[in-house]
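Researcher: Next entry in the queue.
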Amino acid sequence: MDNSILAIVVPCYNEEEVLPQTNQQLTALLNGMMRDGLVGEGSYILYVNDGSRDRTWQLIEQYSGNDQHVRGLKLAGNVGHQNALMAGLDTARQDADVTVSIDADLQDDINAIPEMVKKYNDGCDIVYGVRRKRTTDTFFKRTTAQMFYKFMTSMGVKSVYNHADFRLMSRRAVDALCQYEERNLFLRGLVPLLGYKTDSVYYDRLERQAGESKYPLSKMLSFAIDGVTSFSVKPLRLIFDLGLIFLLISLGILVYVIVALCEGRGVQGWASLMLSIWFVGGCVLICLSIIAAYIGRIYTEGKHRPRYNIEKYLK
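Model: Structure for this entry, 315 residues:
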């Protein structure tokens, strides 16, 4: 019999279609875990409403009123998935011994949660939910996701391959995470920095039951940029390398021009000149945009604005 209080933190943004199935499955799982003595009777599900525009919050209020093991946290506006998840973790650590974060679409297999808790009971502070394969994803999503993880690794960002935000964390691990005050959150990179004992649970990713993905290509690209600029200065070093390459190219062109003049050959390089100008100009703009991304993050961090504001907390 284990008396550890478990909080399952579920960020929600316009999840009206999928939330009834999600709540049914999660409450059944939690009740089973409490009945089997795997977690304490005070365990609960915490839905975090991230400024939804549909009936998501009304459903959360309904579930919370009907079940003492369901709670709701309403944020004052939409702050993004990572900030909403952080709000849930920060709130849950007040009375929960261990938290499990999972997305509302339940594509991550909830049957992996009991195994996570068992690894926690064996002494692990962090347990990652890792996908065995991505057969349920489209070819485009699967390819871009693999490129994303490889790109993050190449940029020096420490992350777990095929792991998103489905993870278990002990209270002391969440306490340590909350000491990281940056506003540009990339939890997949932050959590591995904590250094506590970790393990992984492997599962097969499921099809989304209803609704649509909240991470289109534009958000995935923005997420990748946030991850790289929050944890790596390698792009800045690449700019220096690129400058050296251009310098070598320009020296090569200079040698060519001198040889051509000595041989009496006229240089009719209008086309090549224009091409070079556009090429170098494009590279300069790319380099400036990379530098601007870092400056923008320094600007955001320097203001020290709160990540979120809580409008209502239903216990």
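Model: Strands lie at 6-12, 44-49, 70-75, 98-101, 126-131, 163-170, 198-203, 310-314.
Researcher: Noted, moving on.
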